[in-house]
Design goal:
eight-stranded mixed beta sheet, disordered C terminus, single chain, Rossmann fold, oxidoreductase activity, alpha/beta, binds NADP nicotinamide-adenine-dinucleotide phosphate
Amino acid sequence: MPVNFLTSVFFEGPQVIPYWEQIKEYGPTVIPIGVSLAALKYYFRGSTNTWERDMHGKVFIVTGGTSGLGQQIIYELGTRGAQLILLTRRTNDAWLAEYIEDMRDRCNNPLIFAEECDLASLYSVRKFATSWLDNTPPRRLDGVICCAAECIPRGKPRQITTDGVERQIGVNYLGHYQLLTLIAPSLRVQPPDRDVRVVIATCSSQNLGDVDEQDLLWDKKRYPSTQPWKVYGTSKLLLGLFAREFQSQLMTYERKDLTPCNVRVNLVNPGLLRSPSMRRTLSMGTVWGLILYLLMYPIWWLCLKSLNQGAQSFYFALFAPMLMKIDGGVSIQECKINTKVRKEYSDEELCKRVFEQTEKLIKELETRSAIERKKNTTKEEQEKEGKKKRDLAVKPTTTDELQSKLDVLRSSIGKELPLFPDESALKASGVTKSNVKKRGGSKKA
Ligand SMILES: NC(=O)c1ccc[n+]([C@@H]2O[C@H](COP(=O)([O-])OP(=O)(O)OC[C@H]3O[C@@H](n4cnc5c(N)ncnc54)[C@H](OP(=O)(O)O)[C@@H]3O)[C@@H](O)[C@H]2O)c1
């Protein structure tokens, strides 16, 4: 059929092409526009990973696996048979249970789980890490994928984590710092023939961030609500410095079997994507912004990558064998190593100082939060204890409880009575047998 058609065009001329008149009229305008749009779409899709790796049975911890880029990555790894442990803010959530069930069905992989680890709480991260490490023999771990992030839209006030740190720095930087440094023993102990890869999502906004050693966590400076990307960028920049220092610490660690370090920590910049966080940023978290975002959707569709396109550099970081042959701490973008990075990354002393300073700050924050928790727990416990003591239906287990219950009984009679009153004491207090019976009767009623 196409051959017949092409033959007739060749011998009879282009007028045999359907709508030839319209094509002649509008073609010179429409065709270049169409070609330009197609070229733009092709350009913005970014590079595609070409490496393959058998993921069957490999174990990955993933942060941010419930949305956007993280969701796309766990779908890919899940489909390839990897065991995935998603770290989520909470696990007692019907939506999450359904999400995990759905992901298991879609990937045809029952080895997808969720564990509670709220990156906005250093204590929650510590609880998860402790339970992860508390295992003999040590658990298999082939890598950690850090995709979770908080990105506060423009115009919103400063938000803080459970530990009182600015939220973007707290979740994006401190949460991941705490997680990776606490589970470091698990990374270091993996057998030497295993490729262990830590992949950390970064962002071009790190170019807008700044390392202020006097105020690392943006605690003293005014929060720039009209330019929150500065704080977000700072969180990603600090995360980058952390990755460099963490990698060099892993490299200098001497394994008991004297084999070289088999852990690589790399940064991945996925480019700009049509993800929930991008939608929130562009719509500035408002309904009007969302309407505008929807109206302008063709532009976003053209210029922003899909989740799968954005995930390609992550697949490269997880699959490419050559990344295990070079030192880690590199920045990956468009499925290749990006050499144009912030100059701070090559300042080893700065990376070290920032790492150590953060360690100290985390210690202080954890101590402060522990005291706060203790106070709250004590208050709660005191209330619970008091209720138990006052409740006459609960059998007393200590003399203290017995005394409290007698006090409650006495106060209900309204008179001061000895513990075991005799007739005269009862008479003196005005309690007669008849009114005791009445009290008993009214209780029964
Ligand atoms: N989108 C882009 O254009 C772009 C560009 C460059 C880099 N990146 C980076 O790519 C990564 C993924 O971005 P995205 O756009 O896909 O983000 P997203 O859709 O907003 O997803 C963020 C994820 O982080 C999780 N999260 C947030 N706070 C958390 C906490 N306290 N504890 C545990 N998990 C928490 C969220 O969990 P919930 O489901 O519970 O909210 C969610 O799964 C981020 O690191 C981002 O910086 C994105």
